[in-house]
Amino acid sequence: MAIDLRSDTVTLPSPRMREAMARAEVGDDVFGEDPTINALEALVAERTGKDAALFVASGTMGNLSSLLAHAQRGQEVILGDESHIYHYEAGGASALGGLVFHPVATRDDGVMPAAAIAAALRPRADWLAPPGVICLENTHNRCSGAVMSPDDFAAIGELARANRLPVHLDGARLFNASVAMGLPLRAWTDHVTSVQVCLSKGLAAPVGSLVAGPRDFVARARRVRKMLGGGMRQAGVLAAAGLVALEEMVDRLAEDHANARWLASGLARLPGVVLDANRAVTNIVVFGLAAGLDSAAFVNALRQEGVLIIDLGRGRLRAVTHYGITADDCRAALAACERTLARMTPGPRLGTESANHVR
Ligand SMILES: Cc1ncc(COP(=O)(O)O)c(C=O)c1O
Hints:
Layout: E1 3-4, H1 15-23, H2 35-48, E2 52-56, H3 59-70, E3 76-80, H4 84-88, H5 92-97, E4 100-104, H6 114-120, E5 131-137, H7 150-162, E6 167-171, H8 174-181, H9 186-189, E7 194-198, E8 209-213, H10 215-227, H11 236-248, H12 253-268, E9 273-274, E10 284-289, H13 295-304, E11 307-308, E12 310-313, E13 316-320, H14 327-344
The protein binds pyridoxal-5'-phosphate.
Pyridoxal-5'-phosphate (PLP) binds near residues 141 and 200.
């Protein structure tokens, strides 16, 4: 079987999740009558320190419902130029909500500094699109799973309050940040208005995310969810897996982080790989290849070796560790990378410099 490092979204539900799904008590969630969903929403509201939470089909639906609940047509969404919402959510907030994306430069360490956000806030004028919401992402997918610090969040929270703006956190992998830093979710969520957390990534549930925030915000997000076709009726069968994810799958993320760190330090030593291993602090390893080595060809050749990774474009490759990937799998994957690179890198020739100069 392939060693699939493309994403933690490929995780399969655990046997305990399947049992819980089979036994789940359910009801009509559009009427608010699914006890399993209600329990999951209450648990996430408590963990994030918010009034209420809402179960949605996906991270994308959670982010979109949140943005449409926060901002009005013609208002700007201030967000990172490397963020998932900007790159990979089909422009939904613009297409469906009439919101305008205002991307802000993201540092390599995944941080969008408060000063950069402050500079992006346009003054009130008839000819300018006013800011409607600020979006953050933690951990940061395209920036090697970087963790943004609670202090950075506090500074942005203060800026937002001073400007009477809501802050939405795309916390698809906020549990990874929490485990990596040994801090509760509230270390970050106390500084934002709303948060979206995914159950279907490293926590290995088959489906689902939650949006949490103030009661009136969640009521608006619930209405948007319905509008988007996301009122799922007896979806307690899915929420049951989510409850197991929260009870049993959070602490084990430390194993994924250790595997990612090991893989990153091994990759960093391979000739032809460009990688700062210190960047890998959670479960995502982003790396490049030295000039002259073709990323797409590397991904294809690695696939022939039974190892799957993703090409993020602009010369960046991504490998993600997760439930179902063992330390042995990481060893096998690293060996496959080494063999593949050795085939792609011309060997040393007599009288010429070693090909290792591409290190
Ligand atoms: C940071 C981030 N936000 C949001 C999403 C969207 O989640 P979903 O695939 O459930 O729509 C993803 C998915 O990988 C993600 O990495």
